Structure formats: C-alpha cells, structure tokens
UniProtKB/TrEMBL annotation:
This is Diacylglycerol kinase. The keyword Transmembrane does not apply. One of its GO terms (molecular function) is electron transfer activity. Keywords: Heme, Iron, Kinase, Metal-binding, Transferase. PROSITE patterns: CYTC. It comes from the Bacteria.
Length: 296
C-alpha cells in the first residue's frame, strides 16, 4: 500500500498541475490594440447591436434609464440563476476602473481583470468574434454613460457549478472564435457578423447540450426558453418561412407578417435593431434566409 501511494501521489500532483494549466484563463495580447483609437459615435452602434443595455439595465428601467447599466436582471438556467452585473462607469460598483484590455478580456475571452472565468451566461462565445476596432469604439462609448453605485448581485448557482475554475474545462469543450457558417459570399458577411457575433442570436435560438454548450449541428433550430415558459422559435428557412423583407420589417417594427406583435425579451432585441441602419437589418435578413435547413 505504501508503495502504491508513493506512485499515486506524484501522478495525482502531475494530473492536478495539468488540469490547472488546461483550465487557466486565456488573456488577449494587449499589443493588438496599439494604435487603435475608439470613437464613441461608432461605439454606440456596436453597443446597440450587441444588446448591452438590454441585459444590463436595471430590471424596471425604461427609456433613457436603460443606459444606466446598473445590472440586476435575472437569467434563469438549468444551472441556476445568473444576475447581470453592474457594468456602468462607476469605478467601484461598475467597470469604471477598467481599460480597453480589461474589456477585451471580458468580452472576447470571458475573463475578469482578476483572471477569473466568467459564466457563459455572458455570451463571450459570440462576442469573441468582435473586431478590435469595434471593441475600441465600444469602450469609448461606454465611458460616456452614467455611473451607478448599485452593487452587483451574486449569482444563485450551487455546487459544482459555482467552481469557477471548472469553466476553463467548459471553454476547452465549447469556446471558439470561429464562425459556425464559414463559407459564405461576401455580401453575407455583415449579416453573419451581426447575427453570430454582435447580436449573439444563437444564444437563444440554438439548443444546448447537457453541459450548456451550443448544439451547432442544430444551428438556429430553436430551443427551450430558459425561463421554462415556452420555446424560442427556429430561424432556419425550412421552419421560418418569412421573406427577407418580412424579417427586416419585423426587426424594425416588431410586427410579424401575420399581424402579431413581438413580446418578451425579443421586444428589446427589436428595439435595438430598430435603432440600427436599414442596411444592417437587411443584412441580418439575408443571412437568416441563407441558413442551412435543419434537414441537411
């Protein structure tokens, strides 16, 4: 037994070391932002398309109050309830003491300034594809928004999901900055960027596996509503038979071809897209119509 323990202890130490190395947070190379200057006016469009306020405004905020990113909205899941944090410009309660590198690590790597993994309820798997210039512009805009001292609420997540380091293993399995739909004509690239990256549409419209990773084999194929109420509809052309013009109109007005009106959290998505350009809405519609059907 002593000899067996003598052999097992070094093996266990090596295994733990390898595990810690594999699950360590991966950070961006700060040098990639050298020479970049952000513009707040361009950043506003990035902020809007990415839906930052939709998740991070206070639960009862309306109108201009949605730009006060105090956090607090609940997001239920099979793993517990996550609460959007304060990302206002407040230096203690929010992210006012961050810099562009901190934002890039959070948004594109899911890593905090303290080198802790963020939960993928924050859609960094989609945001990983945001361009460096858009990140710089986004940061410039966010610094113009008001500060708020509301403390962030702790997530209601139990063991073992509250072990942050384990998220490094989740990232090894499911995190990628590659596009799901790779080979597309140039005229669809803007729509793909809006849908797959900024607007992170797949986070709701694609089903997940038992570990919470997106089931890319059923990309945009619809999914159960995490709140437990109903389902999120599919967007593939074999299921969504709307024309591109119908889709673009819905993103602008919230009205369907059947004269129904948008509801739930999708109302905030439409509010965001309505503030973008017609060209962007048309680009999203063109990309959605070009999705492969689930039957393929």
């Amino acid at each position: 037994m002593r000899r067996l323990l003598t052999l097992l202890i070094p093996v266990a130490i090596v295994a733990i070391g390898i595990g810690l190395w594999l699950t360590a947070p991966s950070r961006v190379d700060a040098a990639r932002f050298d020479g970049l200057t952000g513009a707040a006016d361009r950043g506003e469009a990035v902020f809007t398309a990415a839906g930052c306020a939709s998740c991070h405004h206070a639960p009862d905020a309306e109108g201009e109050a949605k730009l006060v990113l105090a956090g607090g909205q609940p997001f239920p899941s099979d793993f517990g309830t996550f609460y959007a944090p304060n990302i206002s410009s407040h230096p203690e309660a929010g992210i006012g003491d961050w810099d562009l590198e901190d934002l890039a690590n959070a948004v594109t790597r899911g890593v905090s300034p303290e080198s802790q993994h963020y939960y993928p309820a924050f859609p960094y798997g989609a945001y990983a594809k945001i361009t460096d210039q858009d990140l710089a512009d986004l940061w410039a805009y966010m610094q113009t928004l008001p500060a708020d001292a509301t403390p962030s609420r702790a997530h209601d997540v139990g063991f073992p999901f509250n072990i942050r380091r384990s998220l490094g293993g989740w990232k090894l399995l499911f995190f990628s900055d590659d596009y799901v739909i790779e080979d597309i004509p140039a005229e669809l690239e803007r729509g793909r960027y809006l849908v797959e990256a900024l607007a992170h549409c797949a986070e709701c419209h694609t089903p997940r596996n038992a570990l919470g990773g997106l089931d890319t084999a059923r990309w945009m194929g619809g999914a159960p509503n995490p709140s437990g109420r109903g389902t999120i509809p599919p967007l593939t052309p074999d299921e969504l038979t709307w024309s591109a013009a119908d889709i673009a109109y819905y993103l602008e007005t919230g009205f369907t071809p059947d004269f129904d009106a948008v509801g739930g959290h999708m109302a905030e998505v439409v509010e965001n897209f309505a503030a973008l350009t017609k060209e962007d809405r048309d680009a999203v519609a063109a990309y959605v119509k070009a999705l492969p059907p689930l039957s393929e």
